[in-house]
Amino acid sequence: MREGMVYRFFIKANPSVKIFFKVYDVDTDEGRLKWLETESSPNGFQIIDCKCSDDGYIVSREKGEKLSSVIYEGALKISDKNKFTAALCNGIGRGRSLGLGLLSVENFASKNRNMAEEMKNSPHQ
Questions:
Q1: Phi, psi of 55 (to 5 degrees)
Q2: CB atoms closer than 10 angstroms to residue 77
Q3: Are 93 and 16 in contact (CB under 8 A)?
Q4: Is the CB of residue 71 less than 8 Å from the CB of residue 53?
Q5: Among 29, 38, 73, 91, which is most exposed with the fewest C-beta within 10 angstroms?
Q6: CA distance 25 to 15
Q7: The dihedral of CA 5, 1, 8, 15: what is its sign?
Q8: Average pLDDT over residues 60-85
Q9: pLDDT digit string (tens) for 44-57?
């Protein structure tokens, strides 16, 4: 990865804001996209193109939490390689211990393969 490179990205995250020690989920598409924009700069990337879709809730019985889950997909540009690498390794936002905030990227030139489908259709079973 290099600064200035553009990648396709996918992230399932919990867009939320903290106001006076209380956390609130962001519940509009406009607000959700704005949340990702504010998370992008401190994590070493900028959003080029993005769409989001609601994915329901993730429930943690241990912590007694119910976090909204939103799927983001689009294109991003790396602005700081070190911060971006940290975001890839650590995730962004809340709910990382529940599998939220994990960033996936791929080069636009790579062929997106569905290995499960390829294995299912393989004649060598």
A1: -130, 20
A2: 15
A3: yes
A4: yes
A5: 38
A6: 6
A7: negative
A8: 89
A9: 999 999 999 988 88
For the chain, domains (ranges, CATH) are 6-109 (3.30.70.1210)
| Rg of the chain taking only CA atoms, in angstroms | 16
The single-letter code of the amino acid at 89 is C
- Whether the pTM exceeds 0.90: the reply is no
DSSP state of 42: G
Pick the closest to residue 39 from 97, 93, 95 (CA basis).
93
- DSSP 8-state code for residue 21: T
Contact 13, 93 (CB under 8 A): yes
How far apart (Å, rounded) are the C-alpha atoms in residues 71 and 37? 14
Burial code of 29-68, b = ≥16 C-beta within 10 A, e = fewer?
Answer: eeebbebbeebbeebbbebeebebeeeeebeeeeeebebb
